Amino acid sequence: MVPSPLALLLALGAAATALAEPLRFVDCGSVDGSIREVNVSPCPTQPCLLHKGTSYSINVTFASKIESQGSKARVYGEMLHVDIPFPIPEPDGCKSGIQCPIQKGHSYSYLNKLPVKSEYPSIKLIVKWELVDDQDQMLFCWKIPVQITS
């Protein structure tokens, strides 16, 4: 039996989707925006293995529900439900791929780096990444499990 062109197309589409699958994340309170996709590269499997001394690319596609002159990122390592601030090189969202001022109803690609310093302990934790508007409201908030390793 020869498979139909539609069946082949569906199978190829499923295979391509599996290769380019976005990261599974937990939305932790996006109020003024809605997350479309979160990508951490490289992170082929979850939890993401973050190697010490390496920097990871972050790309978040989101739509804004409000207007804002600016935005600021806050990143945390969450352990035992405690948020420990995690410094990033560029917290200003307007210098991270977002064209400011932010317009209501527009989609944006937020781009940043997550450096994993050599002195960090080898540990499993949750990365929590927030982007707030100029009223300190959440444009987006997402969480993913990670494991810091040598």
Total strand segments: 9
Largest sheet, if any? 6 strands, mixed
Question: What percentage of the residues does DSSP assign to strands (E)?
Answer: over 45%
Q: What Rg, in angstroms, do the CA atoms define? A: 18 Å
Structural class: mainly beta
CATH structural architecture: Sandwich
Signal peptide: 1-20
Keywords: Disulfide bond, Secreted, Signal
Protein name: NPC intracellular cholesterol transporter 2
Main location: secreted
List the helices and strands and how they pair.
Layout: H1 5-19, E1 26-27, E2 33-41, E3 48-51, E4 54-64, E5 71-79, E6 82-85, E7 107-116, E8 124-133, E9 138-149
Parallel strand pairs: 3-9
Antiparallel strand pairs: 1-9, 2-4, 4-7, 5-6, 5-8, 8-9
Kindly describe this structure.
The chain has one helix at 5-19, and strands at residues 26-27, 33-41, 48-51, 54-64, 71-79, 82-85, 107-116, 124-133, 138-149. With 150 residues, it is mainly β. The chain has one domain (27-148): Immunoglobulin-like. The strands form two sheets. Strands 1, 3, 5, 6, 8 and 9 form a six-stranded mixed beta sheet that branches. A three-stranded antiparallel beta sheet has the order 2-4-7, with no helix packed on it. The longest helix is centred in the first third of the chain and has 15 residues, at 5-19. The protein is elongated. The relative contact order is 0.27. One of its GO terms (molecular function) is cholesterol binding.
